[in-house]
Amino acid sequence: MRPDRIDWTPPARAAGEPRPPAQLRRILRLFKPYRARLAVVGLLVAASAVVSVVTPFLLRAVLDTAIPHGRTGLLSLLVLGMIAAAVVNSVFNVLQTLISTTVGQRVMHDLRTAVYAHLQRMSLAFFTRTRTGEVQSRIANDIGGMQSTVTSTATSLVSNLTSVVATVVAMVALDWRLTVVSLVLLPVFVWISRRVGRERKRITSERQKQLAVLSSAVQESLSVSGILLGRTMGRSDSLSRSFAEQSDQLADLEVRSSMAGRWRMNIIQIVMAAMPALIYWAAGLTAHHGAPLISIGTLVAFVSLQQALFRPAVSLLSTGVDVQTSLALFQRIFEYLDLPVELAEPAEPIRLPRVRGEVRLERVDFGYDTEQPAGTLAGIDLTVPAGSSLALVGETGSGKTSLSYLVPRLYDVTSGRVTIDGVDVRELAFDTLAASVGVVSQETYLFHASIAENLRFAKPDATDEELVAAARAAQIHDHIASLPDGYDTLVGERGYRFSGGEKQRLAIARTVLRNPPVLILDEATSALDNRTERAVQQALDALSAGRTTITIAHRLSTIRQADQIAVLDHGRVVELGTHRELLELGGRYAALLRREGGDQAAAGSAPVGSEPVGSDAVESESAGVGLEPVGVLAAQAALGTSL
Question: What is the pLDDT of residues 445-467, one digit of tens each?
């Protein structure tokens, strides 16, 4: 029994969870490894701000002193100073952009790799509950959407804040009364920008969720399997309409996100742009007996500063909006980073120098549903001595595959324990466990890469000779050699350029290359025809000596030679023994064997190794006519004869 695949939705934030201030502190911690470079950026920002406010004072000297008094030498120096300030400021800005962008990209790299590494540690249950497109969207779209925020917003915030502070100080130095006029509406502007930011944050969260839905639809419907299903079911038009509806919803959210608070922010810009006129008006009102109290040079310099204040002030308000918007993206990323790791490696893991391969399941209970933990397996007690074979048989949903998942620790038991050579698998180092247990599943997965690259996924340093030997063991070398590109042939998306039997043999060759002492075959030869199955299993049988094998059988005729056969029913072992013992018992196993023979007879063909059930069948095993035991588990033999 396997859990249904459903969409995973993060739980609503509990009352005690961190609020935005705590989230901001967590975001700032992302930049901690790069604080030295950020300190350099801060110095450049401060220097740039100081240089920027010098120019208006030089301008005042030009208008009030150099030009009225005809001091051409001073005028030349002041003009050169203004040009030099512009050049120095440009250099500072380029250096600041280079360093801040580099830091931002490193932070994004850290986030991407942290999320990917964290997901690699999640149990199989998480991926059976979560759509692949959702995971891809979190890594690609959400982190990608934070790029501008991470790479430039932090620097822009510091730069604009420093510029605003320096400019305001310079304005106060020129005339404090005009400064008050310029800043009187600033609190209103801050309030407006905060409201706009909250609105955009909400819309951004909705947009990213819809983007994840769209990504999932693309990933599922435009895969090879999705295209085949859509066309054979006549649903291509329906899928196109569904995609169009989802895309239309996303387009609407994009428009809403872009226009949220746009008019309010434009009002701020209009008011800020109109401030010079208000400054001139205020200066005119201060005139006494027709003579202005503020000199022309001071007035022009102040307006210049006020205009210089306009850009960073508006940018600062916009940055505040962007920061609040990006909080929605950070929240989605942190949701994944905060997922509890269900299969954590112990603090002091055990590494076995040599694995014999004895496997034991002791009073094992297991369930996929945490609220009903004992729903799949209950009270399992099995011992598989090193080098022996165990076959698991039973009706669909009896728990065979679930039991096999526990040995490589794809899931953890609810109670009891699973051991290899007497060591609980939960105490083993991940690398030891991965090297000890090999799995060949009925659902073969191949990467969109060459045959050689797919095989080397099991052993990156494998030589060409080792690849050929593994392929020969899996009875696939001759087919590979007949291809124009040989081992460099691309297998295509999920291996769809190859037949089911060819993919299975490639998977077996991959496991042969790994050479684990414990092998699990989950109906590993289910995609093979009788002839190919016999050829593969005969080759594997020759290599199976000394390997511990657990097989989930799809044809009972293939597991007669197993040292033990366990019959499962509703998550419990109801019969255990050899093929001969279970036949003599005349219980569930005998009934399954009779039904298999009857089904195949009804289909018009006798099963490989078919036999009458009863005492005569036991005797006929040694006769060998039509009863060739094609092997214990396909991948058992895939591993060679010595560790």
Answer: 788 788 998 899 888 888 999 99
